[in-house]
């Protein structure tokens, strides 16, 4: 029997791009749940930090990739969230779980406040203004030594796993970070699929056209800053749980630059961009240090250039091209 004689309903169904994407998400979810039981504690710690950075990059992706605003100050919001949690743990002996909403509330308010004066700025001018947050925050934290611990920082306790879970400390911290990252990812996904997401995309693509269509630019640009800062603050709080130590020198302007590089390399406006960017932020600087301890910045820069040359739309865009190639190959069969 020839291929022409085979009824269409009897032919092998070719999975669509949507089905392949759902399959990829399911595989990632399964791997995320299994990983801490298969890896050694140090690798589990590394994956936990990838999730922490992914939460911060979710916020930065919302602002840069979907709202079209540039920020070089998200390392500052990360630090504010970390210190909010640290001060609550150190001074008031607050339960760890309560420091997360507190850090989110503080950074949301600060992000909203920054969004108001930033309404008149765009492009490099906006980037320079936001970068001042990361620049002056470090000496400010050192100045208030009685609260922040100054240059010596604060040493804290980690959240202990409940006995009923049977988990080790590193596994418990991993699942806490995974829960926060999952909740943040679902919240951003829902937001972007709503009318708010369409308004943000309209502002990104053409502000004048968006305003003509009735989009209130001031409202959505300010809220984008606030939401983005809130997620960076949430990441900072979880970072405090994992590291159990905060110091001003851990939150220099280099962190803000690294986060922006991470989301660009991961893929602006993409679903998996923050996760891939989180892996980039954690692993690439370490690898650059191992390759050349005298000039790790040179190695780091070369890696970024190579990635951008091979994948102009980021690692997520490269993965997307691979998925489309696979989809076309399956359909030809």
From TrEMBL:
The chain crosses the membrane at residues 20-39, 45-64, 71-89, 95-116, 123-141, 172-192, 223-245, 257-282, 294-311. It is found in: Cell membrane. GO terms for molecular function: branched-chain amino acid transmembrane transporter activity. Keywords: Cell membrane, Membrane, Transmembrane, Transmembrane helix. One of its GO terms (cellular component) is plasma membrane. It is a multi-pass membrane protein. CDD domains: TM_PBP1_LivM_like. Pfam families: BPD_transp_2 (PF02653). This is Branched-chain amino acid ABC transporter permease.
């Amino acid at each position: 029997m020839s291929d022409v004689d085979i009824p269409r309903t009897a032919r092998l169904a070719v999975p669509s791009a949507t089905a392949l994407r759902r399959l990829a998400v399911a595989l990632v979810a399964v791997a995320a749940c299994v990983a801490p039981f298969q890896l050694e504690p140090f690798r589990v710690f590394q994956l936990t930090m990838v999730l922490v950075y992914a939460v911060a990059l979710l916020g930065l992706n919302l602002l840069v990739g979907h709202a079209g605003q540039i920020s070089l100050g998200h390392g500052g919001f990360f630090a504010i969230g970390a210190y909010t949690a640290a001060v609550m743990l150190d001074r008031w002996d607050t339960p760890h779980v309560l420091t997360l909403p507190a850090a989110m509330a503080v950074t949301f308010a600060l992000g909203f406040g920054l969004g108001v004066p930033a309404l008149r700025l765009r492009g490099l001018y906006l980037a320079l203004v936001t970068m001042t947050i990361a620049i002056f925050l470090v000496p400010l934290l050192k100045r208030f030594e009685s609260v922040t611990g100054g240059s010596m920082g604060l040493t804290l306790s980690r959240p202990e796993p409940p006995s009923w879970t049977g988990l080790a400390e590193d596994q418990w911290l991993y699942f806490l970070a995974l829960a926060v990252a999952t909740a943040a990812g679902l919240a951003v996904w829902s937001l972007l699929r709503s009318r708010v997401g369409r308004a943000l995309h309209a502002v990104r693509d053409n502000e004048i056209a968006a305003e003509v269509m009735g989009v209130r630019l001031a409202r959505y640009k300010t809220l984008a800053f606030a939401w983005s800062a809130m997620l960076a603050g949430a990441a900072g709080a979880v970072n405090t749980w994992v590291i159990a130590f905060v110091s001003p020198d851990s939150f220099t302007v280099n962190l803000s630059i690294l986060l922006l590089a991470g989301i660009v390399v991961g893929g602006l406006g993409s679903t998996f961009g923050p996760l891939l960017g989180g892996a980039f932020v954690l692993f690439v600087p370490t690898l650059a240090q191992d390759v050349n301890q005298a000039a790790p910045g040179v190695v780091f820069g070369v890696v970024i250039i190579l990635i951008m040359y091979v994948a102009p739309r980021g690692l997520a865009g490269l993965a997307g091209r691979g998925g489309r190639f696979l989809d076309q190959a399956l359909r030809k069969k």
